[in-house]
């Protein structure tokens, strides 16, 4: 009976996981295909899609941690080989990902990208093995790579480089240049919340009768001062040069940075959805078979 319960739990989990992954990948593929490609200079604020070339930021010098190669973005994984006589497997012992901003340029302009939260799919991917927890230098090639095939550790490193093409889809926003509007109530509330963080300072500024609290007339002065402060901050931001940004969407929409184009990505997502659908059907068939045995 216990084996039947475990089997039903596994098959039911496979059914649910396959269904969820299938629907997720189909929805992501639809987002990619339905979102028109925009030029950076003329793109509307909100969810947008761009093609361009990666460009190095002048102040950024990034080196990949495993190979030591210069790049604009990296992600790595270190796995350790383990064996207990019966089971042999690779166990992840360390992983990491760079968080530095990227810059994408097309024929119309450039856009800064915050890669945090993005599904990054780079074309450059190296995998090799070695005997040290942290490798020294680049991946071995040819005969040296073959000799290391029985080593204790396996390394994987992915990178994005300057001059490479990039497909990007996410939340597009522009700051500076006088383009952004002012939500005065929200901005005023933000200023007041900041001031409340230093309540002693707030009392010192606005508690005119020094009774240790803010009365209604004093709170009115706080609100007026916060409104003026919010307007001044907006004016200062508007005077700054216009800067375009791409980041993770606030809603559940795909945020993808890829060396591969939209059509290739959509094709990969459709294949993954098909595989997930097969898993879902197999799990459902297994559950039905187990329930038949129970009856």
TrEMBL record:
Domain E3 Ubiquitin ligase MUL1-like per the UniProt entry, residue ranges: 83-178
Entry EC number(s): 2.3.2.27
Pfam family, one: GIDE
Identification of the protein by name: RING-type E3 ubiquitin transferase
Protein's membrane topology: Multi-pass membrane protein
TM region positions: 269-291
This protein's UniProt keywords: Membrane, Metal-binding, Transferase, Transmembrane, Transmembrane helix, Ubl conjugation pathway, Zinc, Zinc-finger
UniProt subcellular location: Membrane
Organism, scientific name: Pseudomonas cavernae
GO biological process assignments: protein ubiquitination
Catalytic reaction annotation: S-ubiquitinyl-[E2 ubiquitin-conjugating enzyme]-L-cysteine + [acceptor protein]-L-lysine = [E2 ubiquitin-conjugating enzyme]-L-cysteine + N(6)-ubiquitinyl-[acceptor protein]-L-lysine
Presence of keyword Flavoprotein: no
Primary location group: membrane
Keyword Transmembrane helix appears in the UniProt entry: yes
UniProt GO MF annotations: ubiquitin protein ligase activity; zinc ion binding
Domain of life: Bacteria
Enzyme class: transferase
GO cellular component, one term: membrane
């Amino acid at each position: 009976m216990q084996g039947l319960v475990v089997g039903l739990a596994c098959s039911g989990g496979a059914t649910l996981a396959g269904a969820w992954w299938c629907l997720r990948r189909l929805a992501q593929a639809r987002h990619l295909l339905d979102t028109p490609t925009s030029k950076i200079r003329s793109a509307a604020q909100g969810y947008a899609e761009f093609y361009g070339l990666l460009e190095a930021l002048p102040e950024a010098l990034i080196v990949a941690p495993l190979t030591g190669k210069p790049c604009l973005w990296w992600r790595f994984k270190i796995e350790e080989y383990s064996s207990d006589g019966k089971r042999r497997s690779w166990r992840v012992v360390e992983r990491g990902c760079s968080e530095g901003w990227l810059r994408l340029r097309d024929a119309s302009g450039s856009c800064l990208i915050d890669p945090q939260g993005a599904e990054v799919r780079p074309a450059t991917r190296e995998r090799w093995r070695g005997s040290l927890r942290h490798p020294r230098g680049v991946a071995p090639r040819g005969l040296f790579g073959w000799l290391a095939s029985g080593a204790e550790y396996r390394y994987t490193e992915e990178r994005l480089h300057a001059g490479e093409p990039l497909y990007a889809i996410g939340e597009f926003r522009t700051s500076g240049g006088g383009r952004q509007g002012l939500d005065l109530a929200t901005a005023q509330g933000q200023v007041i919340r900041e001031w409340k963080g230093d309540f002693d300072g707030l009392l010192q500024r606005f508690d005119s009768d020094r009774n240790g609290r803010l009365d209604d007339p004093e709170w009115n002065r706080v609100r007026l001062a916060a409104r003026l402060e919010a307007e001044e901050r907006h004016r200062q931001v508007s005077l700054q040069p216009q800067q375009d940004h791409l980041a993770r969407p606030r809603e559940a929409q795909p945020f993808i940075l890829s060396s591969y184009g939209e059509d290739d990505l959509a094709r990969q997502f459709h294949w993954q959805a098909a595989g997930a659908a097969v898993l879902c059907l197999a799990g459902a068939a297994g559950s039905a078979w187990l329930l038949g045995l129970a009856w």
